[in-house]
Specification:
Fe-transptr_FeoA-like; Ferrous iron transport protein A; FeoA_core_dom; Transcriptional_repressor_C; SH3 type barrels
Amino acid sequence: MSICSLNPGEKGIISSINGDTKLVKRLFALGCIEGTEVELRRTAPLGDPIIINFRGFDLAIRKKDAKNILLKKL
């Protein structure tokens, strides 16, 4: 399942990150790596972007990029 499948307030553990190399490197640099717990905080009124929280900070990310973050639901 991707992070987009979560409802606000739900959490999951990152199992893999797919997509282009630039996106993967950017997320890795921010600490968004396999095994990290992530929470969907909220979705913008029109559905894009979404705000996720991991390692103590919030990150706004486009929905098309968030679909590449695969999770195991907690």
